[in-house]
Design goal:
By secondary structure, the chain is an all-alpha fold. The protein has four helices and no strands.
Amino acid sequence: MIDVNKIMKYESGDMNEDEVIDFFQELVDTGMAWTLQGSYGRTAKALIDYGWVSTPHEQIFGDD
């Protein structure tokens, strides 16, 4: 379960870049990125496309 305080911190713009990436990595790892409102999924997808967040498959198999 994602900490609601992290969501509030992200929503208020109080996370630095590293915190945002860590937060979205956690959302992808838990699958929450795909169940929250659409902007979370779109941001997660963009971070995956940029290579800043990895999918569980990439973590297991080391895809590039």
